[in-house]
Amino acid sequence: MALINIVEPAGHSVALDVPDGWSIMQAATAGGVDGILGECGGSCACATCHCYVDERLMAELPPAQDNELGMLEHVVAERRPNSRLACQIKGSAALAGATITLPECQE
């Protein structure tokens, strides 16, 4: 399990435990985090779990696959170089201490 910080759209920071193998989207929706909708349930088909990943974690993550890159083309909020879909980031020790910032809107 990894403890990460999620900055909600209103600026409130939430400490979130992400179990190994769970996605950040799963942990955030289960934990009641404001700002992640996850309408597709984590199947990388909607882009409503768009997030901005801190630099340290970006260096640890595998590159986004084609399906994630395709979905990122449809995000509502600004797409940035550190944009990822939270449903595609799986819990592991590498996440510990990371900060994920949520955009102001998902739809």
Automatic annotation (TrEMBL):
Its cofactor is [2Fe-2S] cluster. Keywords: 2Fe-2S, Iron, Iron-sulfur, Metal-binding. Residues 2-106 form the 2Fe-2S ferredoxin-type domain. The keyword Metal-binding applies. InterPro entries: 2Fe-2S_ferredoxin-like_sf, 2Fe-2S_ferredoxin-type, Adrenodoxin-like, Adrenodoxin_Fe-S_BS, Beta-grasp_dom_sf. SUPFAM superfamilies: 2Fe-2S ferredoxin-like (SSF54292). The keyword Iron-sulfur applies. CDD domains: fer2. It comes from the Bacteria. PROSITE patterns: 2FE2S_FER_2 (PS51085), ADX (PS00814). Belongs to the adrenodoxin/putidaredoxin family. This is 2Fe-2S iron-sulfur cluster-binding protein. It comes from Azohydromonas lata.
